Amino acid sequence: MHPAIQGLLTIAFGVGGCVGYFYFSNLVLDRVIFPARGAHIARNIRRANMIRPWLFLLPALLALGLYLAYPVVETLRLSVTERVPGGGSEFVGLANYQQMLAEAKFWEALQNNFLWLLVVPAASTAFGLLAAQLTDRLAWGNIAKSLIFMPMAISFVGAAVIWKLVYDARPEGTDQIGVLNAIYIYFGGDAPMQWLTIPFWNNFFLMMVLIWIQTGFAMVILSAALRGIPEETVEAAIVDGAGPFQIFFKIKVPQIMDTIVVVWTTITIVVLKVFDIVFAMTNGQWETQVLANYMYDKLFRANDWGVGSASAMIIMLLVLPILVWNVYNARREMR
Amino acid sequence: MANLKLTNVAKTYGGGVEVLKDINLDIKQGELIVFVGPSGCGKSTLLRMIAGLERISGGTLEIDDAVMNDIPPAQRGIAMVFQSYALYPHMTVRDNMAFALKIAKKSKDEIDAAIDRAAKILQLEPYLDRLPKALSGGQRQRVAIGRSIVRDPKVYLFDEPLSNLDAALRVATRIEIAQLKEAMPDSTMIYVTHDQVEAMTLASRIVVLANKGIAQVGTPLELYERPENEFVAQFIGSPAMNLIAGTVIATGQHTTVRLSSGEEVVAEIPTTEADQGLAVNVGVRPEDLVEEGSGGALIDSRVDIVEALGEVTVLYIAAGEGKDPLIAKLPGIHKGLRGTSVRLYADPAKLHLFHNGQSLLYR
């Protein structure tokens, strides 16, 4: 069968299946289980309405349970077991965690993750806010915004490839195709640099990629928030004698603080899970390891379930409080 | 505490759209000037030009003899109260009032003193540490006024400050603004509204804006008693003044007009020989019509609708095919008038005469 027809059929079955599920499950509920007739009509309608929300939630609950809740439990189990030669596994307590904590590469990954955590959300939010404010009143602001937003549409791996070209180094004396080296040589640098192999600073070259992607996201959300600020409060501030910077920092930013926090925490969660960029650009070499790549390394290259799962648990523990805070803030903002 | 002078002020928007032209106005210290006019007449635009929030496209604005056209708002010595209050939602009442003073780098003692004074005048003392969202509409409006008072400006600008309040609160706040003016007799205030009751009760002088310009400037009673043109005559007073077409048939100290109905009425308005045969509109306010009178009847027609309000009875009287009904406001309760024919008269001193929209009083 032609793949396109296959795809269309899948869509038809999927959508049809959903519609069919909701239609027939409701039909069964209303006609068979609690029919809206007979001696207990009022009670039946009330009960049917109590059950109906669960009917609608059931598919989502099942899918989330299978693909989210179960893996968490299974990962937790794997993180305290070890493979036995010849098949099977046995309980080893916290041995995997101890082994992991003793590895220098783990601490490097943890340290780098914190560095990412400090820099990327702050830089993305700041650049996004700046772009939102600067493009707000421009005639060509929407074009500028589209350009800044575009990286959001690129996959992390694609973005990594693009930036690998930016950081590319060709032998000395030949034309530099990497923009950064081209600029470096133009301004009098003596030899092209292998940017991604310079420890510590190479972390920032990697972060740049994520900042480039996330700035567009921050800009779109913050731009909408800035538009929501009542114009009269800005005019009142002008009459009160505030300059452009005072209006921005004392009138506008405080009014969109809730949105800034949501944007910040959302990007923070993305950062904690960062994997593709590091995997595609350095694979954790030259002291650029991060937790997610470390986990991948253990799970699929070293085939060490135990330590891999343990590091997955660490990532989850780090994400959890920020996620809770993010959801709390997003809900508060919606009110 | 200042004099304002507007000379040939005009406002044109980018595409050549003219909103205001040839605005000439002298405002003396201590006056409360009210700009009124229908929606879109440019009254708010004029206020915003005085504030400096809109550019002045032509003419000059002077405050105390200094040209202000290109001076930023904060240095014009003005303070503005906005329709939506425009309080800073993230600041307490105290910080809202202190904001301008902090920017002006006033000392802490000065700021505290100014806030205490304003809070006392406006009875805001218990609310100084609250956020705006914890205040009622009336309290928010008082904070907005307080934010102006602390700056001790030369000119206060009010942009429809009461239109976001409910009816009862509007009356109360209107009286508060009148008292505020009383307490600060030297301050100059400019007040924009579309509500003529606000205009009549608050203003020392009213500026009626229409057709891109000033239709008339005068005290509230001048506008009511001696409107310069049909627009002002119909804009001030509610229900609006009735206009009845007629022809001048006798001139002199008093003028006799034959109405289209054939009735002849006398108005205490002087005319000259040259006015003989002039086509005029006789203007009479609904509240000036009475059931008994001498001379010809102004109205002799069928009553279509009766609104009995208790204190007054409002009659809507057929004026002929395709014309707006004539309106009469009779004191007290009148029953059984609907569908009947009424003859209504007016005191010759209460009549107005207009030719081509202009009052014959002003020639």
TrEMBL record, chain A:
Q: Determine the domain of life of the protein's source.
A: Bacteria
List the subcellular locations.
Answer: Cell membrane
Q: Which Gene3D superfamilies match?
A: MetI-like
Q: Which UniProt keywords apply?
A: Cell membrane, Membrane, Transmembrane, Transmembrane helix, Transport
Q: Name one Pfam family in it.
A: BPD_transp_1
Please give, as recorded in its UniProt entry, the membrane topology of this protein: Multi-pass membrane protein
Which residues span the membrane?
6-29, 50-70, 114-135, 147-166, 204-226, 260-281, 305-328
User: Boundaries of each ABC transmembrane type-1 domain copy?
Assistant: 110-326
Q: Name one GO biological process term.
A: transmembrane transport
Task: State the InterPro entries in the record.
Answer: MetI-like, MetI-like_sf, UgpAE/MalFG_permease
* Principal cellular location given in the protein's record: membrane
* Nucleotidyltransferase among keywords: no
GO terms under cellular component: plasma membrane
Return the similarity comment.
Belongs to the binding-protein-dependent transport system permease family.
**Protein name per UniProt:** Lactose transport system permease protein LacF
Organism, as annotated? Phaeobacter italicus
